[in-house]
Structure formats: structure tokens, C-alpha cells
Amino acid sequence: MATKAVNIESIEKAFGEPWATTRQRLEEAGGASASHKELADALYPQFEGVVDKHGWWVQGAVVAYEQEIGRRVPGQRADGTFDVAVSRTIAGQRSDLVAALASHVDGSINEVALTGEPRISETAKRSFWRANLEDGTKIEIAAETKSEDKSLVVITASKLPSPEALEDWRAYLKGFLQQV
Fold first, then answer.
1. CA 11 from chain center: how many Å?
2. CA atoms of 99 and 121, how far apart (whole Å)
């Protein structure tokens, strides 16, 4: 299953304008010669106070534009690496689920050794387990409460070197997530 391109229709709905208008805004901000940050910085104030969560939508619009002009492919970050995430809503408390998944990591994940100790943290909303791998990949297990007895668990692999690595990790993480 390939990573999908950004959903232009959802951006149009959020911004309340056709994609052609948003694209023109990006072209006027420097277009293909501008960096991701420059494009986002130019678009951000145009929607501040107009669109809910406008920063998130601006990032999505810039990524969609970059995909459209061929600067990046779906799943690719501005630095050229790739991220993939899998998720599942599971019965259980968020911190217990993160701990249960982390217990399946014994010095490596997907046959790649961890470097350093994993980091565990909690916020008011989420529980996290994070680790760096020897090949530069970063893994994050995050969980948040969805209801009294269920939590949404998301496992992300980031800093992947290629679309092929993204698909390999997607398959691995789907299986890994089935362990709880």
C-alpha cells in the first residue's frame, strides 16, 4: 500500500477556496525556487484567524504543492527522508499499551539495533516511547486515550532513506502493532 498524496479536496474545504487559488498564493511566494519554510511562512499569515488550525493546513498545502511540482513524493519530508506511521485503537490504558509494545523490543527493532536507551515520557494527553536506531531511523510509540477503556496507538518510523524502506517499515510496524 503506497503512501497517499495530500488530499487537495480537504485543503480546498479548509481554506474555502479552489486549489488553483492556493497554488497561485504559493507561486507568488516564490514557487519552486522557495524553500518549504519560505512557502509556509508566506502562506501562514494569510490564513491566521481565518482557518481553524491554520498552521496545520498551511503545512499540508505546502506539502501538496511540493508533491505537485515534483519536489517530493508522498511520505517524504522536506529533508528528503521518509516517515511512515501505523495506528490502531486498542482496548487498554495508554501507558499500559505503550509499555506492552516496548516490552517486545529487545535491543533491536526490525533487526536494527537501538543506539542509547529508549526514552519514555508522558504528557497530559499522550504516553510515549522513543528510540534511535543505529541506521539513523527514529521510532516513536505514542498512545492517547480515546474512551474510558480504549486508546489510539500510533507507531512512527522516521528518517527512513527511501520509499522502499518506508514500505518495508509499514509492513513490519503493522505486524508489530498486532502484538497487543
1. 17
2. 11
